[in-house]
């Protein structure tokens, strides 16, 4: 059997002609993908409709204006309506946007990345993060998250940066080991020239690059990201993570080991965004920002 190349998988994901996505030359099974570091990831394109169409909408946290705060106070807006007590950078780097500023009839968040910033472990600190734990997701072993993101028309992607995703437990990141007992995280990343990827911290994939280039983030317009997570049965590698962009299926990471205990479940949103990686090559050369809005949590029908 003739095996498809990664370029053909990318073409399927992006809807582009094959000539626009060439660059990967290795041959892999149709259900396989690649990472640029670490082990091979089994990836494909979702064969089901977007999770927001199959799950029930439960919560819609909006960054509302606090009664005692200015309209641009992003920190108060996050604390008020996102079920969070853990956050960083929201007091300095997050601005609340009104519906008139977003243009989508609901408020949003503008996250700032000052010139010379990258990882939050370095100074000066750019970007922001918080952990949202919606009550509707408590004890969930499968869930769906959607949100909208907008990169300005003059955005410089540099080498890449982090974007929000679902998490469970202690939400490992930053090079931490993952044992399937303490937690997992499933953030996204933007890469050079807007290439997208899944950036999981799960057993065997601690900060691996999965599915890079299966889609691209456009400039100057809102796009909707949907992420579905189906946890594995403890002791089996049968977990799944899926992604859609504007309703189009782009990536399915299969045979994932999220957990080795039934006590570990999906807790909520790991809102985490900054340039990096760490070090000079990752730092933004100038002040930049990215907008976020329309957060939604979904769970399967009971």
Automatic annotation (TrEMBL):
Residues 106-295 form the Polysaccharide lyase domain. It comes from the Bacteria. Pfam families: Polysacc_lyase_14. Residues 99-129 are annotated as: Disordered. Gene3D superfamilies: 2.60.120.200. Transmembrane segments: none annotated. This is Polysaccharide lyase 14 domain-containing protein. It comes from Billgrantia kenyensis.
């Amino acid at each position: 059997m003739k095996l498809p190349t990664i370029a053909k998988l990318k073409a399927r994901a992006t809807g582009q002609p094959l000539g626009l996505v060439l660059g990967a030359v290795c041959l892999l099974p149709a259900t396989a993908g690649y990472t640029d570091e670490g082990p091979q990831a089994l990836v494909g394109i979702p064969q089901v409709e977007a999770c927001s169409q199959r799950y029930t909408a439960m919560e819609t946290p909006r960054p509302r204006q606090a009664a005692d705060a200015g309209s641009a106070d992003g920190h108060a807006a996050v604390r008020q309506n996102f079920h969070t007590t853990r956050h960083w950078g929201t007091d300095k780097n997050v601005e609340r946007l009104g519906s008139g500023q977003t243009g989508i009839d609901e408020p949003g968040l503008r996250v700032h990345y000052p010139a010379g910033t990258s990882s939050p472990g370095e100074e000066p600190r750019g970007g922001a993060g918080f952990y949202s734990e919606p009550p509707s997701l408590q004890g969930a072993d499968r869930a769906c998250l959607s949100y909208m993101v907008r990169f300005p028309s003059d955005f410089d992607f540099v080498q890449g940066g982090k974007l929000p995703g679902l998490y469970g437990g202690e939400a490992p990141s930053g090079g931490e080991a993952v044992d399937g007992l303490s937690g997992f995280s499933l953030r996204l990343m933007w890469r050079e020239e807007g290439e997208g990827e899944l950036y999981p911290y799960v057993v065997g994939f601690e900060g691996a690059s999965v599915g890079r280039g299966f889609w691209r983030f456009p400039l100057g317009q809102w796009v909707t990201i949907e992420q579905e997570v189906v946890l594995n049965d403890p002791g089996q590698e049968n977990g799944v993570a899926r992604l859609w962009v504007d309703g189009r299926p782009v990536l399915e990471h299969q045979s994932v080991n999220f957990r080795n205990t039934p006590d570990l479940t999906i807790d909520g949103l790991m809102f985490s965004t900054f340039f990096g990686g760490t070090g000079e090559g990752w730092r933004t050369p100038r002040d930049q920002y990215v907008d976020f809005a329309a957060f939604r949590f979904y769970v399967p029908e009971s």
